[in-house]
Amino acid sequence: MLVTIQYLTKEYADESIFEVLDSLIVKWFKQKFKTFAPPQKYSVISIHKKENTLISAPTGSGKTLSAFLSIISELVSLSKQGKLEDKTYCVYISPLRALSRDIEVNLKNPLEEIEKLAGKDLGIRVAVRTGDTTTSERQKMLVKPPHILITTPESLGIVLVAPKFKKLLTDVQWVIIDEVHALAPNKRGVHLSVSLERLQNVSGPFTRIGLSATVAPLEEVAKFLVGFQNGSPRDCKIVDVQLIKEFDLKVLCPVPSIINATQEELHNSLYKLLDDLIQEHKTTLIFTNTRSATERVVHHLKTKYPKKYLENIGAHHSSLSREHRLDLENKLRKGELKVVVCSTSLELGIDIGYIDLVILLGSPKSTARALQRCGRSGHKLHDKIKGRFIVLDRDDLVECAVMLKNAYENKIDNIDIPQNCLDVIVQHIYGLAIENKQHAETALDLIRRSYCYKDLSWEQFESVLKYLAGEYVSLEQRSVYAKIWYDPVTKMLGRRSKIARVIYSTNIGTIPEESYLEVKFGEERIGMLDEGFLERLKKGDIFVLGGKTYRFNFARGMTVQVTPMPHTLPTVPSWFSEMLPLNFDVAIEIQKFRRKLEELFKEKRSKAEIVKFIHEYLYVDENSANSIYEYFREQFLFAEIPNDKKLVVEFYKGFGEKKFIIFHSLYGRRVNDALSRAIAYEISRISRNKNVAIALTDNGFYLTSESQKMQVLRAFQSLKPEHLRELLKRAIDQTEILKRRFRHCAMRSLMILRSYKGHRKSVGRQQMGAQILLSSVKRISDKFPILEEARREVLEDLMDIKRTEKVLSEIKSGKIKIHVIATEIPSPFALNLIARGYLDILKMEDKLEFVRRMHKAILKQIEPYEIAA
Predict the structure, then answer these.
(1) Beta carbons of 237 and 209 less than 8 angstroms apart
(2) Count of other CB atoms within 10 angstroms of residue 338
(3) Looking at the DSSP assignment, which residues form a beta bridge with residue 647?
(4) Which of 249, 260, 789, 796 is the most exposed, having the fewest neighbouring CB atoms within 10 Å of its CB?
(5) Residue 576 phi, psi dihedral angles, 5° rounding
(6) How many CA atoms lie within 13 A of 192 on its CB side?
(7) 220/286 same-domain check
């Protein structure tokens, strides 16, 4: 059987689609809409034929109705014939509870309109089952099952072991997975992919329909959606209609010259530009990249323009209460708000009514995310997608300009789908054991039908079985007891405890509980840190809290012990944990652009020629093109322009005894994290220098030390791609990052139960338990499955070891050359990286003054070259 993944290229005429729909649906549709939307023209007939279908299209393009139209038509036909049974025909899975509420409203309204046309009650029931659903509502579903069940990935996992509810799922015909792009790259998606295979065991084959915003690679996302059968992907049709909407995207800078503007000029110009844009539009949605920036923007708009922004402005982010967020979403839908500022919480397709402008304050770090955010504007089919990128530094300007080019040219960056997550399958093996006794190879075959486990080995699977079956007796001393029984001779497995179903239902899920840690100097309380920031710290790192610098000593449970270090530069900036990482594909596109520009400078092209090239290549206005030209010209005359074929290592003298070794490695923070740790580890091994500090951004990283013995190039050249994984395993072994991620994996693998017999374990107690467990499993085996998974998560999901290996391979083969330079002033491309190291201890004005002072020194140095030219 050859056919697997196919793109649908035939656009059906309206009349052809009407022929396959029930007459009542046809009548309703003609009254409601003028014509079918492009996603519907490609997909409705495919779904009617019960073909697995992935629909990738912008928000507001009609893809949700594409999924439901054939299904509602079928249910209406069954109702008219008196054949509609009390069972669930369709399961709709959404990553957000709020989105579930949207669909309930958006489904019930059309059904009511169709019933009005029919002149009778058709009896088609829709119900939501999530963690918020009350016990009484769940009981009602057992008496009168919903024909369309709306749920989340976690709730689906729970109902699969609920005997009474599972009976309603024995003949599911369709499963719709919404926002596939938000699920595929993380462990929620991994969990769901196996749940779908378990559902198929209950119901038999069903049609899978995936709805996604802009995402790539579509073929891999399609395989994720449909899973595998007999080692090959199931058939899937792909509908890709990305360019059906008109774009109006621009990069804007609030000042004529970023590098010469004072902090006051930047601040005032930014908020004047924001106010002007907001006032020109009915409703504006502003995306920042951090929760703190969201609150700051709302505060400054209210303070600067008190008469314009009072009750008509709001903040929306994950740290706010659910009630606050729901209230704000309702106000948006009613058109009561002029502007809403959010971090990432409104990226997904919650119905928030009419938005006519989206502002992206700072780089969204990926083309797909940029399109997803901008796609919240112009929600109706024929509305224009209108977005404005506002940039405040030269690196952001280049980044956003390249993303804008990618958006217009439909170059979507790739997502990574996690593979062989050993913590997630613990929950599914436990669930399968609860369902009934079965052969281990039968369970493995089911799990391998998931795209995420297609390559899972028997050895990996059996290591999880042995842990679950309590083979490691010493873990019982740490209150980790066997969950299943497993006979290695017969290879049969089954549940062990009578309360297994309760333990499973109250502990499954993949989203880790996060908390804040108390920072202390001895017994003196200093303040609080979030866990995302802590996991980036290693012993000796300097960070800022409350405007003062401290050295990180160690963390125990939820307490961090520090030592005050006045007048010391931080090694880890305070914004680090909240920042989104730059996508690798976008980074490479920026590097290619750098190379093209360097070639033009080497050819001694005129300014007019180069600016014209920038203007045409990047779709930017004259001011932006001129700023980019000046930035690159300074770097070219002062040093060298790093690019996709040249990695520049800059030895900068620095201040006092400190020397900075700057790697101009524009690969995104995930690769730079892996690369910098590997080099620092090798330095400590070669020169026995344990005090190497790392600071990194998407554009590169620097290493610094008080010690004169820092054999950086030797350490860098000793790195081999084939040994990188083992080296990084050793490098992260004693770090906070591994301790915290091990806790997350221990929770997912049910080593630590967050809920047991009605009692919930606090995050602090979970972390204390995890640290003790980590020591225990290391003594049992360095290959213990949950320890291996914690390492895999750090290296593959948090960092990007695969692309780091690729970079090292290209260096080894000579495809990427290493160029070493020495500077007494940081080169223009290094200025932002060095300045960010000072950001937390300097006021913003002082930081900008530092950058301007350095910039003047650079201009003075390159002046002779300009005169000669």
Answers:
(1) no
(2) 19
(3) 818
(4) 260
(5) -60, -45
(6) 32
(7) no
In the numeric block, which tokens belong to residue 860?
A: 């003075």
pLDDT in tens, 675-718: 999 999 998 888 776 678 888 889 999 988 766 667 888 999 99
User: What band does 534 get if pLDDT is binned at 50, 70 and 90?
Assistant: confident
Q: Give backbone dihedrals phi and psi of 660, rounded to 5 degrees, phi first.
A: -110, 130
Q: How far apart are CA 204 and CA 693, in angstroms?
A: 56
In this structure, are 131 and 67 located in the same domain?
A: yes
Would you tell me how many other CB atoms lie within 10 Å of the CB of residue 369?
24
Find the domain containing 155 and state its range.
Answer: 5-243
| Residue 77 C-alpha from the chain's centroid | 41
Bridge partner residues of 285 (DSSP): 340, 358
Percent of the chain at pLDDT above 90? 59
Angstrom distances, CA of residue 355 to CA of 227, 382, 388, 464: 36, 13, 13, 48
CA dist 407 and 549 (Å) reads 41
- CB-based contacts of 781: which residues, under 8 Å, 6+ apart? 787
* CATH for 161: 3.40.50.300
169 within a domain of the structure (yes/no): yes
pLDDT band at 841 (very low <50, low <70, confident <90, very high): very low
Mean pLDDT score of the chain = 88
**Which amino acid does the sequence have at 552?**
F
If asked whether residues 377 and 273 sit together in one domain, one would say yes
491 φ/ψ sector (left φ>0, alpha ψ -120 to 50, else beta) = left
Give the integer Cα–Cα distance in Å for 792 and 746.
14
Determine the 3-state secondary structure of 484 from DSSP: strand
The tens digit of pLDDT for each residue in 618-660 reads: 988 777 888 899 999 999 999 999 999 999 999 988 766 678 8
Phi, psi of 210 (to 5 degrees): -110, 135
* CB-neighbour burial class of residue 840 (10 A; exposed 0-12, middle 13-18, buried 19+): buried
The Cβ of residue 58 has, within 10 Å, a number of other Cβ atoms equal to: 25
Work out the average pLDDT over 292-320: 86
User: Three-class SS string for 453-471?
Assistant: HCCCCHHHHHHHHHHHCCC
Strands 148-151 and 90-93: parallel
C-alpha–C-alpha distance, residues 304 and 301, integer Å: 5
- The first and second tokens of residue 717, run together, are 């050249």
